[in-house]
Amino acid sequence: MPVTSSRTTLIEVAKLAGTSKTSVSRFFGPERERLTPKLQTRIAEAANTLGYQPNLMARGLKGGGSRLLGMLVADIRNPFSVAVVHGVEQAARASGYSLIVCNTDNDPKQEQQHLRLLSAYQVEGLIINASGQPEAQLQAIMRSGVPLVLLDRDIHQLDAAVIGLDNALAIDMALEHLVEQGYRSILYASESPDYASARQERLQRFTQQAATLGINGQTLILNNAVDHTQTLNAFARRSASAPGAVLCANGSVTLAMTRSFQKLGIAIGPTGLMGIDELAWCELITPGITTLAQPTDDIGQAAVSCLLNQLNGLAQTSPTRYRHTPRLQVRGSTTPKHDPKYV
Amino acid sequence: MPVTSSRTTLIEVAKLAGTSKTSVSRFFGPERERLTPKLQTRIAEAANTLGYQPNLMARGLKGGGSRLLGMLVADIRNPFSVAVVHGVEQAARASGYSLIVCNTDNDPKQEQQHLRLLSAYQVEGLIINASGQPEAQLQAIMRSGVPLVLLDRDIHQLDAAVIGLDNALAIDMALEHLVEQGYRSILYASESPDYASARQERLQRFTQQAATLGINGQTLILNNAVDHTQTLNAFARRSASAPGAVLCANGSVTLAMTRSFQKLGIAIGPTGLMGIDELAWCELITPGITTLAQPTDDIGQAAVSCLLNQLNGLAQTSPTRYRHTPRLQVRGSTTPKHDPKYV
DNA sequence: AAACAGATTGGGAACGTTCCCATTTTGATT
DNA sequence: AATCAAAATGGGAACGTTCCCAATCTGTTT
């Protein structure tokens, strides 16, 4: 056994098996069945003793396709993103694709760089959870024939499918639940919507529906420059007379709000607390935080199958939106202790 | 602008710039400085108007190296793993490498498959957080000259560097803190050590040090088959007379134990609770859970630089272990309310 | 037995790049 | 002006695969 053996190639396997490179190539491709059983075993043996691994770089070079999917994630430390990555990876693997995941840390600069990188690796499809609005780059990528799917966040002037939560429905479900529980005044807490379309949609639907339903709706835009505890405290104290609830636009907002509740000594429940995105610790905070869980595996799978459809020429007629339905996970944080005489 | 333009190549850029492919190749490689400024601008312009992207597959094929690092993660939904991935990615990017992350979901079968895949992509280095003991495969990879680093979990009979927490030190720090706080009886909760060397090391150090320090040390091995609440309950009730604490071997154990504390109505603090691994929610559980935070960014960086050293021929003389020091994050869960008359 | 169709196999070009080496250009020195 | 060294540039082979097409082999039909 050699101390350092450079990688074995197709040709060496062919030589050992006493056949041609073409046959070995076929053996490892989709045409294995065209080979005589005898030849197949001979090749299998040779490949085995040499420990042969096909070189996917070479395959990717010559027409065969790279069998790679690329994924751009805005924040890999966000549990929601990780859950979706997990779903995407499962689905990709199941279809014989591998995944390169790039994390942009919400930095448009890094986003641009990673996009260049991914297309340099000849990925066959791209799943984008954007931080900025890299429309120009993405348009160029689409023009070069690489299918592309947007995750959670839309991008203006880009004709691509968007996959994510049904944000309007989520807000509706949350409001319905909160109202049903007796809350009459609702504070919607969100990070700055900026370019994140999901945040925009949720915020917009909230203000719209609050008005329609005749709820006293307020919004609180988080922003590390400004301290939001004032607003929150005022809101909670007022709700001693009429129960109010805080609705959090996503997981990190839920984290921030829970922290603030504790710091300010606001009782959870009497003042309601609810969040979009399910998190492992939501059941641990007494009395448990009610959430809308996103079907992350479904979302990941949808992204991959959308890509695969495009790869197989089943291009959708027009860019579609795939809206997924959240699951309501009721816990104690949305049960006011009051006699619900305000209903 | 063509509706669908197949990818532009080096040659097309050369033609447009009125030069040879070699010069263009140099322009995009490390030899750019060897080119006349005039030629450089000419190439830059041509590449720009054509929107040229070097094809990394072709580069990887012909000697130039793939500039890819591979990483195998046992459980991507574990926040600790994600944090390390994040550190690795940062460090890799800083050195001009990209990262393919594969998640094995703790399944040795998938692990094997992903290892095959990664080496097929000609990764130049491999960072392995193993689920099983794929020694044979890893030995083959090392023999083929690909440097390799183990993360958190050692593998028998493999001469590779191991990077992770200084497990003995972590246990010592935890015990010291708990004893200082007045706890005299400590229950060490861990998942089954199996092949996970970090778990083994922690467990072993615990039993050893408990004996040395004259602490009443018990261990509780979690296991989804058996219900552990009995043991925990008995332990907590007994500690009404002499304060006891539960030490959790890692983040998921901390999660499980916190759940159990709540379900059984055990007061956190009077019965101590402490965990290895810092988690976002540990400060939210009243009165806050004391943790030993792992320096995940440092660990990720160490893994990459260890790989890079090997790539640059600075092979360490013998496989090393890089042991990192945890940071103690004290919170209320390790403050018994008792008058410390038992000290 | 000859002829033929179909299945099986093999040779060679091509993919887009890098690297070796040869060639040309530049500028300094005699 | 001639010579020479160094710098700059270019041509061609090679990397390991896939795919096209040609060559061979099998078994069946006339």
What does this 3D model show about the protein?
2 copies of one chain form a homodimer. The first copy, chain A, is of the alpha/beta class. Chain A folds into 3 domains: 45 residues, 434 Repressor (Amino-terminal Domain); 127 residues, Rossmann fold, CATH 3.40.50.2300; 135 residues, Rossmann fold (3-Layer(aba) Sandwich), CATH 3.40.50.2300. A 6-stranded parallel sheet of chain A has the order 2-1-3-4-5-11, sandwiched between helices. In chain A, helix 1 crosses helix 2, helix 5 packs across helix 12 and helix 8 packs parallel to helix 9. The C terminus of chain A is likely disordered. At the A-B interface, helix 4, helix 5, strand 2, helix 6 and helix 11 of A face helix 4, helix 5, strand 2, helix 6 and helix 11 of B. Chain A binds a DNA duplex (30 and 30 nucleotides) through helix 2 and helix 4.
